[in-house]
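Researcher: Next sequence.
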Amino acid sequence: MLNWKRNLWVLWIGVFFTAASFSMVIPFLPIFLLQIGVHEHTEMWAGLLFSSAFFAGAIASPFWGRMADKYGRKPMIIRAGFVLFVIYTLMAFVTNPYQILVLRILQGLLSGFIPGAIALIGTNTPNNKVGYALSLISTASASGTILGPLLGGGISHLVGNRWAFATAGMIVFFATLLIIFWVVEENFTPSKVRGSIKTDFKLALTNRPFVLVLILTVLTSCSVMTIEPVLPLYIVKLGGSSENASLLAGVVFSLPGIASALFAPFWGKWADKVGFQRVLFIGLLGGGLGTLAQVLFSQIWGFSLIRFVFGIFFCAVYPALNGLVVKSTPEDFRGRAFSLNQTANQIGGMTGPMIGGFLGGIFPVQMVFIVTGILLLIATGMAFWNGNNLSSKALKRKALS
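Model: Next structure:
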């Protein structure tokens, strides 16, 4: 098997397990807060805990991107994997929200397994196979997102959330071992340029298509994470019972992931035919309308159905954004481009839970869904505008030639 193919499949497994470990525990933080005695300002605490890791990650990602260009993407993935193993294991022993906050900050500062895997694929895959590879790796994240809530909810239901954290640590440890022994990073030339993160930002700002991708990434990540702090509590409210709260939340959380695993390959193949711009526009539009439609349902079954429909469309968004990172940046800047895109992702992930926790603590939960849907529709308008601009420029270039 060619090295790039072996890397792709091994990283697929690694991303699958890492995504599963993340979704086993992180979506259940609001419920875990209740179990350790946090009964006041729970939504705001949940928003703070979600945001803290993203805030730290937004600061640290450019540094790790530069280290990846200097020492390789594979060492950065291994480092991040061991960090996640230690943090998830320690989460099993916390007794108050302040300890969780410290661990979440450390997670943001030191981790980055999945972004590192995407960067390695983007820089070690033949150009004519990059779109296929990125679409395939998105199914790994989606499939892990399916398994994670189901597995985490089941473990939490049987033996408690602490064992779910410990299990997540062991899963990501196994994923890291796979990377150590089976992934080979080819064609890597250590960067000897004594640049700086400030220089990287300046270079990025001169690339208008890439800047728009960064803005869309911020908006998309912010909109997704706005719902995260309040969604488990809202699911419990719709379900009408707190006895099986973790299990019910796990099932509903997994529905967009199931849709993603089923439909992401279709979007990936279609993107190769019509381009990432069009797929991004349709995914954002469907995601925005699907989010707004969730407000209309007050029963758990109708809400679950519309969550699945939302997942069918939204699964097209992140592979399209990653594909646009590849298409809009030169190969020698691609590692740093993915790190900057991860910073944009972390900024959105930081602000989203803060908005969601704030709105959820003051207004009815439905307001959070409305704000999220509006953010996605704004991103849809930007994607449409950018697509028209690029088409106009392409026509002008064709006419001049």
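Model: The radius of gyration is 20 Å. The chain is about 85% helix and 0% strand.
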